[in-house]
Write a structure and sequence with these properties.
Layout lengths: L2 H23 L25 H4 L7 E8 L2 E5 L2 H9 L1 H4 L8 H5 L7 E8 L2 E5 L2 H9 L1 H16 L8
Antiparallel strand pairs: 1-2, 3-4
Helix pairs in contact: 6-7
Length: 163
């Protein structure tokens, strides 16, 4: 990898790390305007955010097994998943606040179908349609970078899953 690309990547990740620390210090209510939420402040349309990682499936959560994290309500399919989320919420929040990753990569916002997703390491991307998912996945690294940059420019915070 040439030095210019490596330097650019280090700079981008440094900015994301700084933004992440800033987010943790901010009142999260200030950033909720950037999240794709139902009127009830429900995230991921009620799907269990931990299940995407543990069983690689979109599983509807149960309203009776829920938590409110920073003003966002999440439902879980099991008490174990709720406990896992509480132990590390930033790991399980959707990468771009629950907005379509393809739209983010194109400097826009679009709703999601929580059954259409791509996991890339510790990052969970959601999509509005199968076509959006296919286009994003076909150039994953390039699309992720574009979406990360747009999310950061819009919110001042790092996308979830970037350590």
């Amino acid at each position: 990898m040439n030095n210019l690309i490596l330097t650019t990547l280090i700079l981008i990740f440094s900015q994301f790390a700084l933004a992440q620390r800033t987010l943790e210090q901010k009142d999260r209510a200030d950033v909720l305007t950037h999240y794709n939420l139902e009127q009830t402040q429900l995230g991921l349309k009620g799907y269990d955010p931990v299940a995407y990682f543990t069983v690689d499936r979109a599983i509807p959560g149960n309203q009776s097994i829920s938590t409110n994290y920073g003003g966002v309500v999440y439902y879980f399919s099991s008490q174990e998943n709720l406990n896992e989320f509480i132990a590390n919420p930033l790991k399980y929040e959707p990468t771009y606040g629950g907005w379509c990753a393809w739209a983010m990569a194109n400097n826009a916002y679009a709703d999601i179908d929580p059954k259409l997703y791509t996991r890339n390491g510790d990052r969970m991307h959601f999509f509005i349609s199968r076509g959006a998912k296919a286009r994003f996945d076909a150039q994953l690294q390039r699309r992720e970078e574009a979406a990360d940059n747009f999310w950061f420019s819009e919110t001042g915070e790092a996308p979830r899953g970037i350590q």
